Amino acid sequence: MQINKPIVDKLIMFEEQKNYSFHVPGHKHGLLSTLPWKESLTYDVTELTGLDDLHSPETIIAQAQQLLTQDNNTISSYFLVNGSTVGNLTMLYATCNAGDTIIVQRNCHKSIFNAISLIGLKPIYITPEWDEVTNTATSINITLLKEAHEAFSITAIVLTTPNYYGVLANELREVITYCHTNNIIVLIDEAHGAHFGATAAFPKSALAYGGDIVVQSAHKTLPAMTMGAFLHINSERINQKKVELYLGMLQSSSPSYPIMASLDDARHFKANYTDEDFLYFTKIKSKFIASLTAIKGILVITTDDPLKLLVRYEGVTGFELQTELEKQKIYAELADSYQVLLLLPMLKNAMTFQFEEIIVGVQLASEKLAHYLKSTPPTTNYHKAITQPKFSPIEMEEKPACYVNIYEGIGKVAAETLVPYPPGIPICLAGEVITKEMTKEIIMLLEVGAYFQGNHRLNEKLICVMKEA
Ligand SMILES: Cc1ncc(COP(=O)(O)O)c(C=O)c1O
């Protein structure tokens, strides 16, 4: 149980004083803004007297971060205003040096790949396990980790758990223990698990298994504003000063007070979430699942994370289901070839959500889907492997590249990373040799309407490869 909300309370007091603004931001408490929600800009202030400084916290921000540290039982926990993206960059900058070799899951977030390029790291990619129930890539297998460790001298490993769909890494405790025994620092991207450990009914955070640094997107599942995230230092292996140095370098020098206040609020929300709240949430969720599954054609799959539901409609892709749901104003978190992912609200006792109207919408969507041409969902071919790209990301920056027909790309070195997004798992990474399987997967995803992020020319069936000498 935590009582105070130091940043929230101070901002309310400051706003009530109706102070005169001769300072940034230029909207002057919303006065010059034409936004319909300009009233809320009165809380968008800056590092004024009494409002502390994220980069050198002493009062309200220090107190709120201290409460976060206590709630998570860490050495030191931080508010981030640039998302888990900046947390991931920071954890690698603070623990690795240029030229170090690190192990990463192939399905890690692009911020990890960006950190590898920026720092000049040498990545060893491990293909994650494939979960047949959710049809998603999950965690790395400890046998492959041991093989990779025997073949290369490794500084750190980055693990992503849970995955986007709420599936937890297998054998996390064993993997972390193995790494620590072998002097490998364990960095955990727990972007999708900021609510973990709220009560014993939720999965445990990787903090409980000894991850050295754990990064969480508070905005994804807790009531924080977009870009609000947490970084936790959880072991003496980590140089706290270095983490703070990189957070200071990589984050804005004008951190958003609305985001920081929402982090204070999200921290408070989680710290005070009770067993009774969870019981209430579970009752409402069960009723929602029962109503969904009563609709002809709908199949619901639950995962390790109580907040995640996968919904499928027999014979159609997740993209098609998403299209019909959106016509009913129902917006899912993501769609893939098989399903849509619903992210449920972490309701507390007596809170309500529009589940009844949503069921009516799903019913209408399902009536439309009944007329769709039916197809069998594609099978995904993931080959478990440890791969070292032919060229590291930093080496690739210097290589000349050109576009070739996608089929001619087989056997050539990819000069671009191709990531269907969501769920953000790269099929081919810049510096890797393009295989027949990768090409097949890209074609299949294009056919089912998947969206590939970035400046690619896949819609013209062209792929960017390294020019051969
Ligand atoms: C696994 C994972 N890590 C990190 C991020 C980045 O998080 P943020 O949006 O908070 O910067 C995402 C975003 O979707 C993600 O899925």
TrEMBL record:
InterPro entries documented for this protein: Orn/Lys/Arg_deCO2ase_major_dom, Orn_Lys_Arg_decarboxylase-I, Prn/Lys/Arg_de-COase_C, Prn/Lys/Arg_de-COase_C_sf, PyrdxlP-dep_Trfase, PyrdxlP-dep_Trfase_major
Keyword Lyase assigned: yes
Domain Orn/Lys/Arg decarboxylases family 1 pyridoxal-P attachment site: 6-272
Domain spans labelled Orn/Lys/Arg decarboxylase C-terminal: 387-446
Domain of life assignment: Bacteria
Gene3D superfamilies named among the record's database cross-references: Molybdopterin biosynthesis moea protein, domain 2, Type I PLP-dependent aspartate aminotransferase-like (Major domain)
Keywords: Decarboxylase, Lyase, Pyridoxal phosphate
Molecular function, one GO term: carboxy-lyase activity
Cofactor(s) in the UniProt record: pyridoxal 5'-phosphate
Family of this protein: Belongs to the Orn/Lys/Arg decarboxylase class-I family.
Name the UniProt record assigns to this protein: Arginine decarboxylase
